[in-house]
Design brief:
Length: 235
């Protein structure tokens, strides 16, 4: 059964109860960047409970400290391919829903898809140059810690540019694609309404249309917003 396109679509589920300074696990093999991030986060009032340089140490630190969020570099020893990403996924398999913000030097849409695969949310995928935009980086970190899904705008832009013509997304209108792109960046209904300069009820209607066209029923146990973003990534 598909959603009624005119059915009111609620905001994402309530955010995790994360208040005040965040407890953070940081994983990056580059010592200078790692120490720089520790200083940046500390100056913003957060507490880095562990700073490590490889995947196994990340998994161990996450299971030991159960942080509010972990910041993970995709490429770490020994092969410098996707060890950090795989360690993040392993940690989430052992501690379901553990918030992870993954940093990458380059756009790899498949990495974002791998992170989202469990449908639990509380994940982010940002390019490393986003760290230099301190307010954006800290905002993304906070949103991931609170359970949101956040994708770098450049990842979303690349997906929009490279979508095939023969997939389920073809049924979406231009406005619905814009809305789905903003959903992929982790924005709430209210934030989407402000960015598109439309009413909240219009956003709810568009989201209902997106869910219906993508065949996401209201009784699905997983988070439909995450499933919609996954469909977007696979497009």
């Amino acid at each position: 059964m598909l959603l009624n396109p005119h059915e009111a679509v609620p905001e994402p589920p309530p955010e995790r109860a994360v208040r005040g300074p965040l407890r953070i696990v940081l994983a990056d093999d580059a010592v200078l960047l790692r120490e720089g991030l520790v200083r940046l986060l500390s100056e913003d009032g957060h507490h880095v409970v562990a700073a490590v340089g490889d995947g196994p140490a990340l998994v161990e630190a996450v299971l030991r400290h159960r942080p509010d969020v972990s910041i993970v570099d995709v490429r770490m020893p020994p092969t410098y391919t996707d060890e950090g990403l795989r360690a993040a996924i392993t940690a989430r398999s052992q501690l379901p829903g553990a918030p992870m913000l993954v940093l990458s030097q380059y756009v790899e849409a498949s990495y974002a898809g791998d992170l989202l695969m469990d449908g639990a949310g509380a994940v982010g995928y940002l390019l490393k140059n986003r760290v230099a935009r301190v307010e954006e980086f800290l905002d993304a970190l906070d949103r991931v810690a609170r359970g949101a899904t956040v994708l770098d705008p450049q990842v979303v832009a690349q997906l929009l540019a490279g979508q095939r013509r023969d997939n389920a997304l073809d049924a979406l209108t231009t406005r619905e694609r814009q809305l789905l792109a903003l959903m992929a960046e982790g924005h709430s209904n209210t934030a989407i309404a402000e960015r598109l300069v439309v009413s909240a009820s219009t956003v709810e209607k568009h989201i209902g249309n997106v869910f219906a066209k993508l065949g996401l029923p209201p009784d699905d146990a997983r988070h439909r917003r995450v499933l919609a973003v996954l469909t977007y990534l696979r497009g």
